[in-house]
């Protein structure tokens, strides 16, 4: 196999033998060849693909289309009926829950067992154990048998292991779906870093994760490779297909500009021009302080002491409403003198996408505010809270010193605040926008 190819799959097929009754399996063994007591089910049928070293490939498709089967075949946990698979480099996998760990062993024992399967020596695991434990961040559960773990804890530990075994190829099946926002972002940071040199094969039903992580995508349909290509293109074709499944063949993603119209006929107007019941995007969020558990790093020259979100509309403590005016306040202390300290924040969604943020650079650029060692200082940012879809978000905070062209980060906290948005009626996109008018009209 060419050295720039990480995974090569040729005419790969997997057939499961389905027996209607358990005794049929026994009969088949006894009367081997004379009669067939099973039905064949082809979960994968002559699939061929090539993944180049350093490529990130998402696998999409409906339930039962063969995605997990393909991943298991690539990882060698399942034998193919026919066809060939070649991998170039160390493959580490996060497959479905329950695979990989011995349920009776503790988390710690499973770390040692699993890492040794990936070729690490006991000394190497000893050296990395504290990093693995910190990545998993499951506290004292690490010494409990994994059969008592929640699915989230299980994935945390499994991900922590594969993140520390020097894999060349990572194979991940839907793992991010069970993690909370903080853990998901930790995984996303790891994967983004891994992607710089490594190869990723990633199964997900969450199209935003696929688009976020993968350059290419493969669409499997009833065990066949239906389409492969750039992730955006494949995601659009798949979305078109799912729309047609729901709404029939007329559903299309065609641009409205394809069918221009000149005259406009409006739908009959009612007394109330538009009933905005469906367009009420109000969303409520609860905010919790995560400063003590936040992931990040610091130089030691200064640190963030607190980060908080305050309501200026005084709605209610800890509950904020999309659209209301709020203030993010970040307080820090300098351990050495800073000539131009900068404080900033970024709001991120669970996949680590930056939604918005700001820092005090513009202010410090024009009017620097030096601080002496030991001085406490703060910045606050007042703004209208956007309307966000349901889900978890985090606020990243940072402390730096310098100007636009030359600045040094001193404290960086990925998840200083955690925001939980509930009861949002936003159905599409990353934010809700207040609509002034919505009209349905005929073009004649
Ligand atoms: N051990 C098995 N015996 C019989 N059929 C199986 C077995 N494992 C999987 N299948 C069948 O093979 C098909 C493909 O399964 P697979 O788990 O690969 O699908 P998938 O695309 O990953 O689905 P999902 O999105 O639901 O996870 C399904 O119809 C499934 O029922």
Automatic annotation (TrEMBL):
Residues 24-247 form the ABC transporter domain. It comes from the Bacteria. Gene3D superfamilies: abc- transporter (atp binding component) like domain, P-loop containing nucleotide triphosphate hydrolases. Keywords: ATP-binding, Nucleotide-binding, Transport. One of its GO terms (cellular component) is membrane. The keyword ATP-binding applies. The keyword Transport applies. CDD domains: ABC_KpsT_Wzt, Wzt_C-like. Coiled coil: none annotated. GO terms for molecular function: ABC-type transporter activity; ATP binding; ATP hydrolysis activity. Belongs to the ABC transporter superfamily. This is ABC transporter ATP-binding protein. It comes from Halopseudomonas laoshanensis. The lineage of its organism: Bacteria, Pseudomonadati, Pseudomonadota, Gammaproteobacteria, Pseudomonadales.
